[in-house]
Design goal:
The protein is built from 6 helices and 8 strands; from the N terminus they run ββαααβββαβαββα. Strand 3 (about 75-80) and strand 4 (about 90-95) form a beta hairpin. The chain has helices spanning about 20-30, 30-35, 45-65, 120-135, 150-160, 180-185, and strands at about 5-10, 10-15, 75-80, 90-95, 105-110, 140-145, 160-170, 170-180. The protein is α+β, with helices and mostly antiparallel strands.
Length: about 190
């Protein structure tokens, strides 16, 4: 699969990261509303450029080449873009979360503070879930949310994730959620 992954989610599109996304991604990840809930999200613009060029874009290529079985797939990093304006407003990704028991592929997302409470995170998460369950051999998907992140918890519940328990990651308390392909299919 060499063509760009692009997922139509209604008002938004999920698409692979591009180098021109770095300024908007940087601006978003320095917002307290984002980095408060995503440890390690803060970085300099130079770090973001380096990560995009040397890690995130190459990871997307590796992910695509591993489809559909996802053996050694690593991360898929997608921008959330408003369909009407083309504005980069957030990200939605999937990767292996070492702190979780196997199968430990998770989904994550963040949205700019300027675009909150419009349903974009839910649309993005559902779009990526559908892509993963329809286009890959994935059977189980995880998510974690800080226990204090009420907005993310609501998104996960709207997407059909079920609470699997609590765990500590980096000294912080998280809720661990799981959804299986058969559960997703019966709710789609």
């Amino acid at each position: 699969m060499n063509k760009e992954i692009m997922i139509d989610c209604g008002e938004i599109i999920l698409r692979e990261y591009r180098m021109e996304d770095v300024p908007e991604l940087y601006e978003m990840t320095i917002q307290p509303e984002v980095y408060e809930f995503i440890p390690g999200a803060q970085a300099t613009l130079e770090q973001r450029m380096n990560w995009m060029e040397n890690y995130e874009i190459p990871a997307n290529k590796k992910f695509k080449s591993s489809m559909p079985d996802l053996k050694d797939a690593g991360f898929l990093n997608l921008g959330i873009v408003r369909k009407k304006t083309g504005e980069f407003i957030g990200f939605c990704n999937t990767g292996i979360k070492d702190e979780l028991p196997e199968p430990n592929r998770e989904i994550g997302y963040a949205i700019s503070k300027h675009c909150r409470n419009k349903g974009y995170s839910t649309l993005a998460a559902k779009g990526l879930m559908g892509f993963l369950f329809e286009k890959t051999a994935l059977e189980t998907l995880n998510a974690v949310a800080l226990t204090s992140n009420a907005s993310s918890i609501r998104v996960l519940q709207k997407c059909g994730f079920q609470l699997a328990g609590e765990l500590e990651i980096g000294g912080e308390p998280y809720f661990h959620y799981i959804i299986r392909k058969k559960e997703w299919a019966s709710n789609s």
